[in-house]
Amino acid sequence: MLIAFNKPFNVLCQFTDDAGRRTLADFVTVKDVYPAGRLDYDSEGLLLLTDEGPLQKRIADPRQRTKKTYLAQVEGAPDAAALALLQRGVKLRDGMTAPAGARLIAEPEWLWPRDPPIRHRLNVPTAWLELTLTEGRNRQVRRMTAAVGHPTLRLVRIAIGAWSLGDLRPGEWRICS
Question: Do 103 and 154 lie in a common domain?
Fold first, then answer.
């Protein structure tokens, strides 16, 4: 079984938490499924859950180079040079990243408002990027955009390989066929 779940902001990618934070158990009622990969507590969007060990491993294994697509609202307006850096790969403390798909996009009309909303600064514009990565380093998108001078304010994963978020609203899930 494979489940696509739209993980809300500030939800842990696990089923229990001793600190009382919201977890997958607050939303997903199917038993014996586990996340295939991770999505940070402060990130939103597509998380796949499965009860099939080999499928879970294949999706989460960085050697498989599964494409993951994100929408990132960033501080400032990235220029062609910043986009080119993301596309070539960015030097981070743990080494160079693989090249990424990176392009400026209009703010998605279909995207739900975040609760709580991101901070707004009157003198600092924001822009939206679509980024596609084949790696899965810890907080990679956030570190990459910060490295090119445009910190991420909001991050939403919209696709993992052939699976996409589709019309799922935050907290909703569906069984994939």
Answer: yes
Residues 79-82: contacts with CB within 8 Å, 24+ apart? Answer: 82/148, 82/149, 82/150
Provide the domain limits for residue 96.
67-160
Residues whose CB is less than 8 angstroms from the CB of residue 38 and which lie 6 or more positions away in sequence, other chains included: 13, 60, 136
CA distance 45 to 35: 13
Of the candidates 40, 61, 115, 167, the residue annotated as catalytic is: 40
Active site residue 40: yes
pLDDT tens digits, 127-139: 999 999 998 888 9
Tens digits of residue pLDDT in 12-64: 999 999 999 999 999 999 999 999 989 999 999 999 999 998 888 888 887 88
pTM for this entry:
0.95
| Shared domain check, 91 and 28 | no
The verdict on 131 and 73 lying in the same domain is yes
